[in-house]
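Subject: Interface between my chains keeps coming out wrong

I've been trying for a while to get a sensible model of this assembly. When I model each chain on its own everything looks fine, but I need the whole thing in one frame so I can look at the contacts. Pasting all components below, labels as-is. Any help appreciated, I'm running out of ideas.
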Amino acid sequence: DTEVTQTPKHLVMGMTNKKSLKCEQHMGHRAMYWYKQKAKKPPELMFVYSYEKLSINESVPSRFSPECPNSSLLNLHLHALQPEDSALYLCASSRAHTDTQYFGPGTRLTVL
Amino acid sequence: QKEVEQNSGPLSVPEGAIASLNCTYSDRGSQSFFWYRQYSGKSPELIMFIYSNGDKEDGRFTAQLNKASQYVSLLIRDSQPSDSATYLCAVNLSNTGKLIFGQGTTLQVKP
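Reply #2:
Try treating it as a single job with all components included. I did that and got this:
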């Protein structure tokens, strides 16, 4: 089983809203990732968590705040986003940071 | 120089033909290489991973790695219309967990 789940599937928010994206895996993976993908572009890494600790932050603006409450769960808290932040947000997980990453279905975010 | 380069295509092949997708990378410290398939509006789906020089076969798919030339390729035999998608080459940058993607090659398989 290589399933990564993400909720919600779609999210529409205003620039003053606060919302959160959720990602979950039950494969015992110890590395989890957030990616952002704009239309017709490849995914771009945002954050890497390894053993529940943030190991890579790709200079992401502070309006995106990741959280890893436990080894199965990864959240992305959103606040004061801009319309250009509209994208597909992908979560992935892997056994370790050197291993194959498996992607969830993504959350399609629209910022009005 | 981009870290991972692919020809964006589109690459058009007739049904039943072999599709050949190519990728080059710049970081010599990278050890893990991946091919993902992405249908429009969907998330990337793992097709193959390869860590060692040479060929790796899985069904109709063969991945090839040449670390000396910094080159990865994917062959799809007996191409089907359902193979029509964007194929993303990805490199785990110096095994840090930072997956760097190429721009993707759009494959069209015509019946």
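Reply #3:
Confirming on my end. The interface with chain A takes residues 31-32, 34, 36, 42-46, 49, 88, 92, 95-104 of chain B (CB under 8 Å).
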